[in-house]
Design goal:
Layout: E1 8-12, E2 33-34, E3 37-38, H1 39-49, E4 54-59, H2 64-69, H3 74-80, H4 90-98, E5 100-105, H5 112-124, E6 129-132, E7 136-139, H6 145-156, E8 159-165, E9 175-183, E10 186-194, E11 205-213, H7 217-222, H8 234-244, E12 247-251, E13 255-258, H9 262-276
Parallel strand pairs: 1-4, 1-6, 4-5, 8-12
Antiparallel strand pairs: 2-3, 6-11, 7-13, 8-11, 9-10, 10-12
The structure holds uridine 5'-triphosphate.
EC number: 2.7.7.9
Protein name: UTP--glucose-1-phosphate uridylyltransferase
Catalytic activity: alpha-D-glucose 1-phosphate + UTP + H(+) = UDP-alpha-D-glucose + diphosphate
Length: 277
């Protein structure tokens, strides 16, 4: 059997989710459900479908519900065992059986780059790994976005970011890339800017919440200066990696919902509701 090059997936989930207050005051944003499943479970299922079995989650204060979700709830299991309601637990049981979970806390919210360094060094170690931002919910008939990226990694063996075209006037919400298209939908990145004003954006190709990173990124993050909003931006570190080595932008197949925003969350809910009908 072919050796798996990427077995571990990191979920930075320490953010406050302020756009969903007050819902996120005592509940992690990643636990908000689209229909019956919390956002982070969709992410974990995507990682499992891409062949991964080790989930590493960066949490923060008030995020314990995530750990409880990926664990057995003895009282509940005991109560509904053998009843007509037991099937409601089938999906989550199967997720828990297929992989392991580990957690670390990001003590201070110093940005996505810092969250990746915190989780990567302690929970992943010296191997390439995937990153999922669970509030970017992706759906695709056939291979999921992460599975598509793993396939690409086997060919290029460098860091990869998922990108999509966004309206030019929305570039200020994203990291935006510039690059040469070396194959259809595959860009060798030459420039990357975090949340640029539309007039300064090098393109309308925005980075979304799926990455494959090589472990040299840790040292690069440590040597990256805080950027926009005084935070360690992963985009700035990836730009250094792109100059020193190579980073690829991949226009993925599928649909992405920005579930960190109310509009995207409602859109995703409608999409999965119509799909389930
Ligand atoms: P966001 O920019 O969406 O921030 O972070 P947020 O706090 O989750 O949400 P708002 O903007 O306050 O509503 C993007 C991703 O990076 C993680 C978040 O959990 C989210 O998945 N993140 C960000 C961290 O884990 N740590 C950080 O310091 C910053």
């Amino acid at each position: 059997m072919k050796e798996k090059l990427i077995r571990k997936c990191l979920f930075p989930a320490a953010g406050y989710g302020t756009r969903f207050l007050p819902a996120t005051k005592a509940t992690p944003k990643e636990m908000l459900p689209i229909l019956t499943k919390p956002l982070i479970q969709y992410g974990v299922e995507e990682a499992i479908a891409a062949g991964m079995d080790t989930m590493a989650i960066v949490t923060g204060r008030g995020k314990r519900a995530i750990e409880d979700h990926f664990d057995i709830s003895y009282e509940l299991e005991h109560q509904i065992k053998g009843t007509s309601k037991e099937h409601y637990l089938t999906e989550i049981r199967s997720v828990i059986e297929k992989c392991t979970f580990s957690y670390t806390r990001q003590i201070e919210m110093k940005g996505l780059g810092h969250a990746i360094l915190t989780g990567g060094e302690t929970l992943i170690g010296n191997e390439p790994f995937a990153v999922i931002l669970a509030d970017d919910l992706c759906d695709h008939e056939g291979n999921g976005v992460l599975a598509q990226m793993v396939e690409l990694y086997e060919k290029y063996k460098c860091s990869i970011v998922a990108i999509e075209e966004v309206p030019k006037d929305e570039t200020y919400k994203y990291g935006v890339i510039e690059g040469k298209e070396i194959e259809e939908g595959i860009f060798m990145i030459s420039n990357m800017v975090e949340k640029p004003d539309p007039k300064d954006a090098p393109s309308n190709l925005a980075i979304i919440g799926r990455y494959i990173l090589t472990p040299d990124i840790y040292e690069i993050i440590k040597n990256t200066k805080p950027g926009k909003n005084g935070e360690l931006q992963i985009t700035d570190s990836l730009m250094i990696q792109a100059k020193e080595n190579m980073v690829i932008g991949y226009k993925f197949k599928g649909k992405r919902f920005d579930c960190g925003s109310i509009d995207g969350f409602v859109e995703a809910t409608n999409h999965f509701y119509n799909k389930a009908k």
